[in-house]
Amino acid sequence: MRNRALGVLLLLLLCACGEREGSVPTLTVSGSAVGAEGEVLSRQIRRFMAENPGLRVTVQRVPDDATQRHQLYVQWLNAHVGTPDVLQLDVVWTPEFAAAGWILPLDRFSPGSSDFFPASLAANTWQGKLYALPWFMDVGMLYWRTDLVAAPPGSLDELTALARRGQAAGPRYGIVWQGARYEGIVTVFLEILGGFGGRILTPSGGVAVDSPQAVAALAYLKGQIASGLAPPEVLTWHEEETRFAFQNGNTVFLRNWPYAWALLGKPGESKVAGRFAIAPMPAAPGGEPTAALGGAQLAINAYSRHPEAAFRLISYLIAPERMLERARVVGQYPARRSVYRDPRLGEALGADPAAILAIVEQARARPVTPVWTELSEILQIHLHRALAGQTGTAAALKEARREMEAVLERSGLAPEENP
Ligand code: GLC
Questions:
Q1: pTM across the whole model
Q2: Does any ligand 1 atom lie closer than 6 A to the CB of residue 66?
């Protein structure tokens, strides 16, 4: 009787897990499919399965909107769901997920980390342990129309002037960027903020989002909408909507990540193929050209039933050859420094790897903190309100600072008061 009960229990457990004894374990990896990303990931996974006949891998598509993707992950992980086994994480999520116990520390797998950029390693380390491995690097950049503008702008004022002049020659807009209320708007702001010489947090961890530089930066972005250079629609746009505007020939400038490069260059699909180039986002006097550092990492779901296999898959996906293939197909920048020394990278990206390496190394990271999501959400709300004209710029940033300080205070992360 007891044996029978045990047998039933075992059967139930096996059914609940969705895998029968003796069947090939199935790993799930969450990945985005922006542009050609989905295509290259499926191809690499097919090869991985061919090399690992004992494993099956499926891709779970997740929303492209970084904030929506984060919310979905939080729901799964809060419910201790074991899939996806391998999670594609944004560079700003690792400390939060690690602190919550949602992803596994990787030390037991002894991952080699010396090939990665220090900023990525810092972003993926929590309490001295590495929790995720960098997959590709994102840096914000300015796409510009070479048929409408003679040279990229050397300053933010010049960007305004060139956008206006270019717009007069035909396109509906002068510039577009990601202004919807999600993580993207914070990266856009961070770049203009750096351009004015400001920061989100001071080096000691104090909130600096209402500095005079920050007010000037937000006023600059708001001015682009008010003056008709950027359409009010940008306040609902993410990466892809802005790419489409540029690709359809509707804007002189576009702020976006590297993935857009390959897509914009496709004749037949892009009306601006062969008529655009990239440049760093310029700065105002007193600031410095600033590119936001973004990118994806791979981590293991703490509730995964197959952590060893999950690590094998991660190691495969982040191997130099796979990064090179991603660079060639998607245009994404490798997360390993050694790949920048590979002579094939220049050809894959159609750009000078040394120049790209310099941009990646100088890119500005968002603060590394387990409460980043909360801080960012506050900033998103107030930036968006100011840009939509619901509040003044200075008042919005003052309120953002107050609320961000309260989060830091509550979580014990506020900097010590000066004596
Ligand atoms: C890109 C970046 C990521 C950033 C996001 C914002 O996916 O890689 O770091 O948070 O865009 O939209």
A1: 0.93
A2: yes
